[in-house]
Amino acid sequence: MTATLLKEASPPPVSMADRRRRARRRGRIVALAFVFPALLLLGALVVYPVLFSVGRSFFDASGTRFVGGDNYTEMFRDPATLKAVRNTAIWVVVAPTLLTGLGLVLAVLVEKVRWATAFKLLLFMPMAVSFLAAGIIFRLAYDEDPDKGVLNAAVVSVHDAFTGTSSYPTARARDGQGLTKGADGSYRTTATASPGHTVDLGLVGVLPKDLPQGVRPAYPAAERKAAADELRGVVYLDFTRGGGGEQGKVDRQESGLPEMKVEAVRDGETVASTTTAADGSFRFQDLGSGSYSVRLPASNFAPPYQGVSWLGPALVTPAIIGAYLWIWTGFAMVLIGAGLAALPRDALEAARMDGANEWQIFRRITVPLLAPVLTVVFVTLVINVMKVFDLVYIIAPGPVQEDATVLATQMWLVSFGGGNNQGLGSALGVLLLLLVIPAMVFNVRRFRGSQR
């Protein structure tokens, strides 16, 4: 009787299926407890802002009046927004293509470099630099002043090495001192001269410290008499240090202006040309009888070449893309290099044994086998390019900000940068989200496919 009662009071045995079910339930609860903080942050920082922006895009600038799809209509009527869409399209097409191509070429070449690790480190190092710092670096590098911008300093150096430059861009003649300025910037004597005469051409506007090295006083040359068959003269700086001297006359302390081109002109045609010596002297021989004008060509006074306007309206977008390439080339190279290291070497060796050269191996074997990796890198860069903001905002100067704007910068400018229209800015944000989502979905599917 007692055994029967104890048997009836004991709990029924738990089956293995029930134990597994309870264990799975406990596992889900524990997993949810660990994931919940991340989900909370994701909802607060991603989901809520997205939903709020979608709702805000249907209201006016003040956020009080419902306007429906007016913001989306206005978005495609605004010329600045259309330019932002165009620039974003340029970024999406050019930047990921160049980065993927550069990364592929560098990844293949790095395998043949002795110090491959150091080379990869140097190329990947810009990734450690923030976009803000990179923008400041390239803003200085692209500066139009050759004394500040390293790119223009190089361009000006190459230009001057091949074409030369004027030594006296600030020189000019005093009014009423025997020289008249032409429409092309040249100077010509008001009075004519014949062989056997001496002509003194005084200029001002040149600082003594800017005179070329080796310059000599002009007075001795001005005192020389011209031979009967030559036209002689001197080009000098009509300025005496410390004051004094007489305008239009070569004084003892005044310097000649060397390396200046001088021409003898008759009936509007140049019949002879020469270059002044260290003391500013020049002479024309065998001119023949008659009267001549002496001209200083405009090339003597041409302003120095200032280089390329990298941040002008025409080149600002390519210039910013160049800065972006500097930052992200190492990233593309490392990812593609990882895929290249996983390629089956037997296929490459078999192709070499069959007589294929390196270009054929690269084009017909390496690139097709790396296609999945190249696709992932390209799509990832497309997503990143659509969100570019820092470089455009920092590098582009204020006057050309609109010429360089992309959707991300336009969204900020419309919302907070003076437009104060957060309804239109939210519509731009929704447009940017809709453009990014297809690339994100494609990348996620590629990752899942590779895992399977």
Query: Can you name the CATH architecture of the largest domain?
Result: Orthogonal Bundle
Q: Beta-strand level of the residues, as a percent range?
A: 5-15%
| Annotated CATH topology of the largest domain | MetI-like fold
Low-confidence stretches are none
Q: What is the CATH first-level class name of the largest domain? A: Mainly Alpha
| Shape estimate | elongated
Instruction: Report helical residue fraction.
Output: 40-55%
Give the name of the CATH superfamily of the largest domain.
MetI-like
Rg? 38 Å
Number of DSSP E strands: 8
What is the mean predicted local confidence, pLDDT?
85
How does the SSE layout of this entry go?
Layout: H1 2-9, H2 16-56, H3 70-75, H4 79-110, H5 116-124, H6 131-141, H7 150-163, E1 179-181, E2 187-189, E3 198-203, H8 219-223, E4 230-237, E5 261-266, E6 269-275, E7 281-285, E8 293-296, H9 316-341, H10 345-353, H11 358-369, H12 371-386, H13 390-395, H14 401-404, H15 407-415, H16 422-451
Parallel strand pairs: 3-4
Antiparallel strand pairs: 1-2, 2-8, 4-7, 5-6, 5-8
